[in-house]
Specification:
254 residues; alpha/beta; TIM Barrel; eight-stranded parallel beta barrel; 18% strand
Length: 254
């Protein structure tokens, strides 16, 4: 398998080794020469964009703030690193502007949009001068992703799908033809699928027949990652990007 690095996405940065969605995790992934780094973004009360997975800080700080109800200054006053390890104490929430400054010339920032459609004009403005080939946009929210794709048509956009992630999401699955139709009608570039049983070889190959990319989330087992790449996945998301790259290199050279 050629150019394994091009098929690796660092999930929330190098999040196995550093606090997810923080500058240390993002910079570590770049330092490891990972081509794609993924972050989650939310919109603050004062219309700033920050990197964080949840809508509040309860899982990553002793203080619980709602992102949309606080200003950036308040959110950046709290420690979100100590939950991972005391060596990350005083790590703070990163703004999108801070993250963009770390983007290397060959790097691609994969932005998962967690906020509702209100974030779109702010995000489009923030990304206006970033080279389109250094941005990829993903979201579970179809309307939000469609709106940002219309604002940044040259950057790739992939629709995130839960599929059989939970029993609830499994019960809500649409026919694959519906996902493909909706994706193409919004000019999306692909689908980003949960690495479950439904996303088998036939499922992936059917998507690719329609000239859509297929990304897979989130895999930390090398054999499983290799299987999805052999199915035809264009990229896989992992918490351990460098390690995964090394393990895949060993597997493909055996």
């Amino acid at each position: 398998m050629t150019d394994i690095n091009s098929k690796i996405i660092a999930h929330r940065g190098a999040s196995f080794d550093a606090p997810e969605n923080t500058l240390p995790a993002i910079q570590l992934a770049w330092k490891q020469k990972i081509k794609r780094v993924e972050i989650d973004v939310h919109l603050t009360k004062d219309n700033r964009i920050v990197a964080i997975h949840d809508a509040n800080t309860s899982k990553i700080s002793v203080k619980n703030y709602s992102i949309k109800e606080e200003n950036l200054d308040t959110l950046q006053s709290i420690d979100i690193g100590s939950w991972k390890d005391l060596k990350w104490a005083n790590t703070t929430i990163a703004s999108l502007e801070e993250i963009l400054k770390t983007l290397p010339k060959e790097g691609i920032l994969v932005i998962e949009i967690k906020s509702d459609i209100c974030i779109v004009p702010v995000l489009a403005k923030a990304l206006k001068y970033v080279p389109h080939n250094q941005l990829e946009l993903i979201s579970f929210h179809y309307e939000t992703l469609a709106a940002i794709k219309s604002q940044l048509p040259l950057s790739k956009a992939l629709w995130l799908l839960d599929l059989d992630y939970t029993s609830v999401t499994k019960s809500e699955i649409l026919p694959l033809t519906k996902y493909i139709s909706k994706a193409t009608s919004a000019n999306f570039d692909g689908l980003n699928l949960w690495a479950g049983a439904i996303a088998d070889k036939n499922y992936i190959q059917e998507i690719k027949k329609h000239q859509l990319l297929v990304y897979i989330w989130t895999i930390n087992e090398p054999q499983k990652a290799l299987r999805f790449l052999q199915y035809g996945a264009d990229a896989i998301t992992t918490d351990r990007p460098l390690w995964m790259q090394q393990q895949l290199a060993k597997l493909t050279n055996e």
